[in-house]
């Protein structure tokens, strides 16, 4: 049921998103105070700080928000699809496939467009492979899907290790950054925003069905849901979101697993709230993590995937503890 | 106007025949019991009526329309089922769970209909669950969960109620409570029920029509005195059954080894 406290939660999440984006735009090695930031956003100028803002901070912040939103959304969907609280966007091997693609590109000295393309192709290969095997006999159980995904994941893991151990030290450095998730090379365009918005909207349209599906397949069928078509739609939408996110920023961990659970612990179990809420919180979370990643040990940069875990673990434990006390 | 019609229905599962060439009609305001020993296919038969299992031959008509031409959401407004295996205990409250039962009737994609809330509250009241409304499902006992599952079905308010072992986990007082809550709602809606149960006495107390699966594909169905005979029950349950008059009803029980006539299988008491 959607009560007023849920609207309150959503409003708070929108505020958090705006504040996190603002903080991210303010932080960095070049001094850019708040009034100047507003000025630059309203009336762009050719000053150094203006260029830093428009060409570095803003694209990176937007990339972080979009990636975080996609991952958290994909996480919610995977957790319903697999009815497993431990499910995350990578559990079915998408990140593994993408990683093999990306690492192969790095190995051959390719970057930029090539790197993202091979990563995306790797992710899609993995998605289709898992779907093909799990769906072979016309009916796919959750267990079969999960097992197939985990096994394919392990296979990708082996290939990743081969690539890592046979590459030169220089390449290994970039490979590790990619594997941990890194936003320093990232940029997003209108296609990415559209995908995130389409994900939220279609998630909202399916949210009532998701509320029912999470109670079990038999119950959902008894209440009038065509679970097979719903599950296929969920599988492919979560996969597309994850593949795109991984292509933008490498396999940033933790966001997709923990953000949905944070919201559930805060009482948002209804998918009509959980879907938009996860996108907002996931986006804010990654924006904050990335601000820390690029400023904490400046001029050195940390991979953002490390920071998500470092701030995510205590944040999650605090929420868990406070809800248990209730 | 029949609610549910089976036409020459043959249902098989594995190498077992649940029923062969079965034709019967369930009309409004009828209470049917589905009886038979463990593993004979009671659940499979119920699942077939919801298109969860494909019959080998014959046809099922729901609300006078072939089942295979009925959309799942339409079906869920007309047929509701209490599954034998309860719901998965996702963290949620009793009230949230019962509200899920209104899903087939939802009009708006996002907004709640206040009537749904009233219906869910009424379902909770009729099963003495009001005090549990805000309790978490995973803190409930087996019997309490079963009552929540039934409240969810009452909130769904279908025209035909399919119940798979409704008395599971319930003590005697709540078995009676559950059936009287159901009876009240069936009466208000002119609905009918088909319940699979292993409890012959509960079925005899509550139902007026009986389907007895014999295990070899043959089925006996009809009124109490036609179906619940010692001969038919003994054949269906592979065990010597007795029928004993008690007030204006009958009690059914397996014969004790020392009872006279045990083993002959044909001696009638009534």
Briefly note the CATH topology name of chain B: Rossmann fold
User: What proportion of the residues of chain B is helical, as a percent range?
Assistant: 25-40%
How many strands, what sense, and barrel or not for the largest sheet of chain B? 6 strands, mixed
Total beta strand runs of chain B = 12
Mean pLDDT of chain B: 90
* Oligomer class: heterodimer
The first-to-last residue Cα distance of chain B is 36 Å
Biggest sheet overview of chain A: none
Number of domains of chain A: 1
Class of secondary structure makeup of chain A? mainly alpha
Low-pLDDT residue spans of chain B: 262-270
Beta-strand content estimate of chain B: 25-35%
Principal-axes geometry of chain B comes out as globular
Order of helices and strands of chain A: HHHHHHHHHHHHHH
Mean pLDDT value of chain A: 89
State the CATH class of chain A. Mainly Alpha
Flag low-confidence runs of chain A: none
Sheet/helix structural class of chain B: alpha/beta
Q: What order do the SSEs of chain B take from the amino end to the carboxyl end, as H and E?
A: EEEHEEHEHHHEHEHEEHHEE
Q: Please identify which CATH superfamily of chain A we are dealing with.
A: ABC transporter involved in vitamin B12 uptake, BtuC
State the CATH architecture of chain B. 3-Layer(aba) Sandwich
Give the helix/strand layout.
The complex is a heterodimer of chains A (326) and B (270).
Chain A lengths: L3 H23 L7 H9 L5 H34 L12 H14 L4 H23 L7 H25 L2 H12 L9 H16 L1 H7 L3 H6 L4 H23 L5 H11 L5 H25 L8 H22 L1
Chain B lengths: L3 E10 L2 E11 L4 E5 L6 H8 L7 E6 L2 E2 L5 H7 E4 L11 H7 L13 H13 L15 H15 L3 E5 L7 H18 L2 E5 L3 H7 L2 E5 L5 E4 L1 H4 L2 H8 L3 E6 L2 E6 L16
Parallel strand pairs in B: 3-8, 3-9, 6-7, 7-8
Antiparallel strand pairs in B: 1-2, 1-4, 4-5, 9-10, 11-12
Helix pairs in contact in B: 3-5, 4-5, 5-6
Could you describe the 3D structure shown?
Chain A has helices at residues 4-26, 34-42, 48-81, 94-107, 112-134, 142-166, 169-180, 190-205, 207-213, 217-222, 227-249, 255-265, 271-295, 304-325. In chain A, helix 5 (112-134) runs antiparallel to helix 11 (227-249). The longest helix of chain A is centred in the N-terminal third of the chain and has 34 residues, at 48-81. Chain A is mostly helical and 326 residues long. Chain A is 77% helix and 0% strand. Chain A has a single domain, classed as Orthogonal Bundle (ABC transporter involved in vitamin B12 uptake, BtuC). Chain A contains 14 helices and no strands. By secondary structure, chain B is of the alpha/beta class. Chain B is 32% helix and 26% strand. Chain B is built from 9 helices and 12 strands. Chain B has helices spanning 42-49, 72-78, 94-100, 114-126, 142-156, 172-189, 200-206, 224-227, 230-237, and strands at residues 4-13, 16-26, 31-35, 57-62, 65-66, 79-82, 160-164, 192-196, 209-213, 219-222, 241-246, 249-254. In chain B, the strands form 3 sheets. In chain B, strands 6-7-8-3-9-10 form a 6-stranded mixed β-sheet, sandwiched between helices. Chain B has a 4-stranded antiparallel β-sheet with strand order 2-1-4-5, covered by helices on one side. Chain B has a two-stranded antiparallel sheet with strand order 11-12. In chain B, helix 5 runs parallel beside helix 6. Chain B is globular, with a radius of gyration of 19 Å. The two termini of chain B are 36 Å apart. Residues 262-270 of chain B have low confidence and may be disordered. Chains A and B meet through helix 9 and helix 10 of A and helix 2 and helix 3 of B.
């Amino acid at each position: 049921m959607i009560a007023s406290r849920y609207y309150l939660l959503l409003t708070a999440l929108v505020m958090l998103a705006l504040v996190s984006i603002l903080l991210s735009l303010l932080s960095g090695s070049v001094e850019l105070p708040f009034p100047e930031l507003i000025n630059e956003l309203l009336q762009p100028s050719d000053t150094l700080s203006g260029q830093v803002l428009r060409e570095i901070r803003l694209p990176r912040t937007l990339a972080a928000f979009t990636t975080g939103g996609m991952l958290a959304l994909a996480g919610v969907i995977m957790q319903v699809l697999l009815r497993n609280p431990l499910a995350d966007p990578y559990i079915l091997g998408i990140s593994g496939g993408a990683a093999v693609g990306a690492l192969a590109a790095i190995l051959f000295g390719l970057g930029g467009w090539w790197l993202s393309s091979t990563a995306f192709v790797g992710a899609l290969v993995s998605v289709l492979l898992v779907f093909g095997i799990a769906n072979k006999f016309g009916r796919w159980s959750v267990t079969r899907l999960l097992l197939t995904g985990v096994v394919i994941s392990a296979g990708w893991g082996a290939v990743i290790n081969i690539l890592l151990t046979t590459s030169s030290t220089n390449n290994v450095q970039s490979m590790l950054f990619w594997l941990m998730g890194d936003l320093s090379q990232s940029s997003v365009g209108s296609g990415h925003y559209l995908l995130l918005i389409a994900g939220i909207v279609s998630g909202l349209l399916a949210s009532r069905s998701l509320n029912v599906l999470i109670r079990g397949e038999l119950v959902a069928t008894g209440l009038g849901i065509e679970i097979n078509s719903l599950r296929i739609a969920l599988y492919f939408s979560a996969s597309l979101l994850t593949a795109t996110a991984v292509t933008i920023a490498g396999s940033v961990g933790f966001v997709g697993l923990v953000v949905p659970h944070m919201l559930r612990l805060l009482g948002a179990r209804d998918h009509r709230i959980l879907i938009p809420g996860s996108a907002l919180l996931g986006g804010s979370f990654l924006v904050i993590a990335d601000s820390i990643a690029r400023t904490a040990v400046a001029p050195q940069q940390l991979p953002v995937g490390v920071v998500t875990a470092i701030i995510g673990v205590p944040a999650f434990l605090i929420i868990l503890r406070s809800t248990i006390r209730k | 106007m029949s609610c549910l019609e089976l036409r020459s229905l043959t249902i098989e599962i594995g190498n077992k025949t649940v029923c062969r060439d079965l034709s019967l009609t369930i009309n409004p305001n009828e209470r049917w019991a589905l009886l038979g020993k463990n593993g004979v296919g009671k659940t499979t038969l119920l699942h077939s009526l919801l298109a969860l299992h494909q019959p080998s031959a014959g046809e099922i008509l729901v609300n006078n329309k072939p089942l295979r031409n009925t959309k799942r959401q339409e079906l869920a407004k007309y047929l509701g089922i209490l599954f034998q295996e309860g719901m998965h205990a996702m963290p949620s409250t009793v009230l949230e769970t019962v509200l899920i039962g209104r899903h087939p009737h939802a009009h708006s994609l996002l907004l709640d209909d206040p009537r749904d809330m009233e219906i869910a509250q009424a379902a909770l009241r009729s099963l003495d669950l009001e005090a549990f409304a805000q309790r978490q499902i995973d803190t409930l006992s087996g019997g309490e969960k079963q009552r929540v599952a039934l409240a969810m079905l009452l909130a769904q308010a279908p025209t035909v109620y399919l119940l798979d072992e409704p008395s599971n986990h319930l003590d005697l007082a709540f078995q009676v409570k559950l059936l009287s809550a159901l009876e009240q709602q069936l009466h208000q809606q002119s609905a009918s029920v088909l319940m699979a149960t292993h409890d012959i006495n509960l079925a005899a107390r509550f139902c007026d029509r009986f389907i007895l699966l014999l295990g070899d594909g043959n089925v006996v169905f009809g009124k109490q005195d036609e179906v619940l005979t010692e001969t038919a029950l003994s054949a269906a349950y592979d065990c010597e059954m007795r029928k004993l008059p008690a007030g204006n009803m009958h009690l059914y029980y397996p014969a004790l080894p020392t009872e006279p006539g045990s083993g002959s299988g044909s001696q009638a008491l009534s």
